[in-house]
Design a protein that fits this description.
- This protein has seven helices and no strands.
- It is 71% helix and 0% strand.
- It is mainly α and 217 residues long.
- The chain has a single domain, classed as Ferritin, CATH 1.20.1260.10.
Length: 217
């Protein structure tokens, strides 16, 4: 999931059904999820068709399905709190779409896996922060769903065996937003770690299922 600045959107703080008005970082979180859906759905669809291995095709199919559902959820919560959602990916995300789409064969598989893994790693910190620190029950529930999906997708992308250590991670993780709310206390960090470990356990089950399915084909 690619990170963008909340200032790119003109959304104003809206009254919350619980926990008072939305904080700027909570609005940013909603917007970031929408941006992620806008570019990862088409890239998942492309991987499902163009991937050279069954694993890459399965991962693409799963990413498409999860982000399609998440897109429905983010529209609902944005309507609930009056947050204006973007209609197009960011310029960085459009460049990633062009880069991935321009690849073929193993180069396509590797670029798809690394670009999406880097982006998911970037958004994971923001999602975990919201899940651990928000006092809004509706935002917390949505963050919990998003956190589970991000954890699952990172693990699935890593399961392709194509994720490496190079510049894509640093580039995709660039985030300059400096909200005071972005500083977590020790209790919130511990909670985020515990929650992440639980989500990782559930994700490993999904990976084993996909691996078994791939070996049967």
């Amino acid at each position: 999931m690619g990170i963008v600045l909340a200032s790119q959107q003109s959304a104003q703080a809206a009254p919350a059904s619980s926990g008072g008005s939305l904080k700027p970082v909570e609005q940013e979180f909603i917007t970031v999820i929408r941006f992620a859906n806008l570019w990862e759905i088409p890239m998942g669809q492309l991987a499902a068709k163009r991937g050279t291995t069954q694993t890459v095709r399965d991962v693409g199919t799963q990413i498409t399905a999860d982000h399609t559902k998440l897109n429905v959820d983010v529209k609902k919560i944005a309507d609930q709190f009056g947050v204006q959602l973007p209609d197009d990916p960011t310029s960085s995300q459009r460049s990633w779409i062009a880069e991935i789409s321009g690849k073929t064969g193993e180069d396509f598989d590797r670029t798809f896996a690394n670009r999406l893994r880097a982006a998911h790693g970037t958004v994971f910190g923001l999602v975990s922060e919201i899940r651990a620190g928000t006092t809004n029950t509706d935002i917390r529930a949505f963050a919990e769903t998003a956190n589970q999906i991000v954890m699952k997708h990172m693990t699935l992308l890593e399961s392709t065996g194509l994720v490496g250590d190079h510049g894509m991670f640093a580039e995709a993780s660039a985030r300059t937003t400096a909200y005071p709310e972005n500083s977590l206390g020790h209790k919130e960090i511990i909670l985020a770690i515990v929650f992440g470990l639980g989500a990782l356990g559930a994700t490993l089950i999904v990976v084993r299922t996909l691996s078994s399915r791939g070996s049967e084909r």
